[in-house]
Every structure is written in C-alpha cells, then in structure tokens.
Amino acid sequence: MLTGPIRKLSRSTRSIAGGQYSHRVKVRSRDELGALAEDFNRMADALELKIQELAAAAQRQKDFTASFAHELKTPLTSVIGYADTLRSRELPRLQQLEAVNYIFSEGKRLEAMSFSLLDLFALERTAPQLVTVQAQALARAVAESMGYVMSQSGVELRLSVEPGSFPGEPNLLKTLLYNLLDNARKASQSRSSVELLGCTTPQGYLFQVTDHGRGIPQEALDRITEPFYMVDKSRARAQGGAGLGLALCQRIASAHGAQLRFESRVGAGTTVSLILGGSEP
Phi and psi for 243 in degrees, rounded to 5? Predict the structure, then answer.
C-alpha cells in the first residue's frame, strides 16, 4: 500500500528534475501520503511560476541587449562613415560642415542614451531618498529648463499648477516631467501648445501633461514604456530620441509608488497622468 504512492512521488520528482515543470503527483489518499502529495504539488506550482518568471526576465534581458546593440550600431555606422570620408578625401566646406554636424548630433544622442541607461541602472540598485516636494516650485523649475527648446520648436508651454506637496526625489521628478514635456513637444506642431496641469485629488497630487499632436495608436500604448521601443523610429531618431525616455519615466514613477497612465487618440493628442503621494487604484 505504501510503495505505490511513494513510487508516484519519486517519478514526479524525476520528471520535474528533468525539466517537466508542469508535472504533478496524482495521489488521492487522505492520509499523510495524500497531504505530502498536496504539499509536493504546491511546491511544484511555486517552482513552475518561478521558472516562468526567470524565463521571462531572461527574454527581456535578451531583447534589451539586442535593442541596445541595434541602437548603438545605427549611429556608430554613420559616424564612422562620415569620419572616414572626412579623413580620406577633401570635401567642400559645406559638406564638411554637414558631416561634422551629423557626427556631433549622433554623438550627443549616444551621450543622452548612455546617461538614461545609467539612470535606469541606478534606480534598479538603490531606492531614492524622498523629501517634501512643492508642486509649484517643481513645475517652475521644469518650465525654466524647457523654455529654450519649446521656443525653438514654436510650441507654447502652459502651466496650471495648484499649490500642493508630496514626498519625492526632486531631481528624479524633474527628469520625469521634463521627459514627458519633451515628448509632448516632439509630438506637437509649431504654433501649438503643451499643458502641464497639477492639482490635489483624494488619491494624491495629480500631474497631467497634454499635447494636441500626432497621438499614439492604441496597439502601441501597452509598449511605449519598454526600453528602446519607438512608435516611429525614423522620426524619433531624427529628433535625437533613443526610446529610453518613457522607460526612465516609468521607473521613476515606480520608485515613487506611482504609475504613468496614457490616454491618446491618433491625430488628436495624448495625455499622460501621474499621481504622487497616494495609493493609485
């Protein structure tokens, strides 16, 4: 009587050890052996879940590495090509300037990508030190930083930020709002506007960034915070993007116990919302 259930347990153990993580023990007795089989199956459930999580994490890491290599290769190929042209033959002054400007702009994009990656890695290693942040002071600081690029693009930044405070890391939150506003600027036409709204709600302090630009297709909304994901790769690269801005914003929001919420219609614009200092549903 005892040997049959024990053999089943032994076979199941060997099956799982051999990689068949979905295998379960089929012992129906209600004695100690039945309880042991139930415990074994619960352990196998937890093990299978962990294996799936590890496989998903490994795939994300693989995708991240492939995307990173691709994003490095594209500008480096052009930079090396232009540099080789400048080195190997004489060019008219105008073509020299075009080549040098391209090398400079792609170098700046690589630099920005490197800084964003460093910020992402830093957020994974250590939790930010939170202090009390004043909403209006934060908004004014971000608006000052955005002033030049907004004016160059012919886009008006409109602020409507009510008094309020919340726990946060000021520099990280400034980076978050800057990136959201910069994305809104890039999506907007000249002589349009981008709005930054701030107000207190029962859930916490709400920030909203709204543009009236291209909008984001519904099928892309679930992926836009993935590292290196770009809705329009050619346009993003032309504007100096590397697909890391929203990924960094999402990590910063997560470090503050919050999340980004996106509402968008193609051709009508996008609103990104964030609630700080509260528990979001």
Answer: 75, 25
In a domain? residue 95: yes
Given a contact cutoff of 8 angstroms between Cβ atoms, the answer to whether 146 and 174 are in contact is no
What pLDDT is attached to residue 74?
A: 64
Q: What is the pLDDT of residue 110?
A: 78
The SS3 assignment for 7 reads helix
Over the stretch 125-169, which tens digit does the pLDDT of each residue have?
788 899 999 999 999 999 998 988 899 899 999 999 999 999 999
Write the pLDDT tens digit of every residue in 166-225.
999 998 999 899 989 999 999 999 999 999 999 999 999 999 999 999 999 998 888 888
CATH number of the structural domain spanning residue 149? 3.30.565.10
CA dist., res. 73 & res. 247, Å (int): 20
Residue 77: which domain range?
1-126
Buried/exposed 202-220: b ≥16 CB within 10 Å, e otherwise: eebbbbbbbbbbbbbeeeb
Residue 112: exposure state from Cβ atoms within 10 A (0-12, 13-18, ≥19): middle
175 plus 84 within the same structural domain? no
Number of domains in the chain: 2
Q: Rounded to the nearest 5°, which phi and psi values hold at 269?
A: 125, -175
Q: Which two tokens stand for residue 182?
A: 């910069």
For residues 110 and 153, state if they share a domain: no
Assess whether 138 and 245 both reside in one domain.
yes
Long-range contact pairs involving 5-9 (C-beta distance under 8 Å, separation at least 24)? 5/29, 5/33, 5/34, 5/37, 6/33, 8/37, 9/36, 9/37, 9/40
